[in-house]
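Re: [help] complex structure
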Amino acid sequence: MTSSVGSTTGAAPTAVAGTARATAAPPPRSGRSALRRQERWAGWLFVLPALAILLIFLIVPIGFAFYISLTRWDGLSSPFGGGAKFVGLDNYKNLITVDNLTRQNFATSIRNNVYFVLFVVPLQTGLALGLAVLLNNKFLKGRSFFRTAFFFPSVTSSIATTLVFLFLFSGGGAVNSLLNVVGIRGPNWTADSRGVFHQVLRVFGVTSPPGWTQHQFFNLSWWDWLSGPSIALTVIIILVVWTTSGTFMLMFLAGLQNINEEVLEASEVDGATSWQRFRMVTPMLRPTLILVLTLGLISTWQVFDQIYLTGNNPATITPAYLSYSQSFRNSAFGIGAAIAFLLFGLIIVLAALQRRLVGSGEDD
Amino acid sequence: MIRRTRAPLALVAGVGLMLAAACGGGDSGFDSGSGSNTGGGATSGVKLTMLIGSSGDAETKAVTSASTAWAQKGGNTVTVTPAKDLVQELTQALSGGSPPDIFYVDASKFAGLVKGGALAAYGDQLPNKDDFYPNLLESFTSDGKVYCAPKDFSTLALEINTDLWKKAGLTEADYPQTWDQLETVAKKLTTGGVTGLVMSDTLDRVNVFMRQAGGSLLNSDNTAFTADSPENLAGLQYVQKLAKEGALKWPKQVDAGWGGEALGKNKAAMTIEGNWIVGGVKNDYPNLKYTVVPLPKGAQQATLSFTNCWGVAAKSKNQAAAVDLVKYLTSTDQQLAFSKAFGVMPSVKSAAAQFAQQFPAQKAFVDGAAYAAGPTSLPGFDQVQKDFDAKIIGLSDGSSDPKAMLVALQKNGTAALKAAN
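Output below.
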């Protein structure tokens, strides 16, 4: 490989020199290809800074992280000097096939995140679309005010909004005070690890897990898998829906404004109700919808800030957070990196699946 | 076209990898696990770096000025950096190959650092080695070698909100000496918005009762877990009994972050914390009146100790100077100066009398040193403890079963121990 690289670089100066002469003289027949070669090299030269940045900050770290995921490294010494012991796929095995606490935590984090995605993605997409349709109404007064108001949470630091939510939802916080007024004693939201589905079942008289749910699957019983998001996670779901729907609203708004006004006006003249118009518009928003769903899916699988701030609670841990805590808190960088790659694979599979289900909006 | 584009890419990739290799190559002489070679480097004209997990400005200032005083004597300089997150920053510095010369080491992280070859074992060079509390030295001993000098320590004791105590019609004679008495007063103190006892829902508190019942997490030479024992079960069942009676609550249940806050907000009549509570409540609840008494006795007297040591990096080029600085910082006089500045308890016995004289209210913390046990120091124990801690709150409503909790602790702990060896 080095020799081929060497010969390519060696060829470059002659090519440059050759074309320099070629431009001075009237172009011979070979001049065009020389020029093209020169342009090619100039092109590479121009993208070199960007490429170098991509390589140094993206490709190399990813490759390095993958290498770490194949080692047992405690992070206390340089991984190059024998500090990281190569263990092959042991970390991945630990997460998937070995019955231990690590797998239990991983399974819990996957369960939490599945519920998180199932709730956040439809809710934020629906809310964003609804807001966008409202704001797209020409006759709405103070449109720019509402646009700013809805978009504001998206541009606020996630740390700040999370802290505000933590205060609002603390045991004696504003939300519980409000609930008190109507006579409801609110739970200690952010610390409550009880599953929402379990609580709903409790209303119907199912207070203890039925026998068939006692089978274990990946260190969690089916009862635990079917718990629904914990009450603590529900707070984060509300928070994330609130903060991100503003961004997606803007995307829908842009999509709506791309739709030919005449079509809508014509339908109005024909006496279509606003609901009918909305239904007519929606298919035209398909490319935007796919973008929003895909971005939503990816970002919800990577949720970290909000989890980090609400503390290390098994009821809220997600794979991204687990990757961090395994690395820096448990000194198991190999496991942490392996989680990151499993998450990466999961996101790719799910994004592809979603593309298949919703369609890409154009022919592939 | 595709073939053409690959060559420059490969070139850049090659350069990138070489760069990465060069960055990491600087410490190829690293040998894992040998942290014992100490005593290199000059002792004057040296530049030392120190990373501390500071509790606040007072601590940073005190450590900086003490280090500067030492540095000026020998013509050295010391740069003290307070870390935002000590564990994370230290890990980054160590993996980068250029750790600070001196840093705080928490006893629970000690074993991992020794195993990673990060610490120099300089314990034998300490002139006052015998002056340190033996159980603190034990927290920083591995394979018979004392690695680092305990910086300071605290033990857990019982803090009582004296106003609430009096309001409940209790006197000094009622300070609980036994589990039964603790239960009685806790129940008596629990009225309306006040809970008798509030303590953090962590193994670092609950373990007190397991120890007092005669149990322990690991056997004496740390080779096997003994978490699933009848003694530990008795301790945990006692905790559950109090919790079910409502006499014991966890900070989250009374809307507090920790025991000190619950005590300061008059939500708790008693809590179990270490002497950090003194500084912790001084600013936030200046009107709080409280007394510190020793923990009541179960089958035996027991408490937990928490301590840090002055770690010296195995890779430091200035170990001799670093050890010299540690000797200065751990001297009896300097430790008493630190006590005055930010309230920590000296790690040497020779300072105990003076400390107790200066801070009579904290006598219970010092006395605990005689029967305290250190924390579990085992790489990978962090997630085991987190798993246990998460279940503690469930003791109150019975959703967590003490026996099952101990079985899981035993299983997960054993796995961590196996993975660490």
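DSSP finds 17 helices and 14 strands in chain B.
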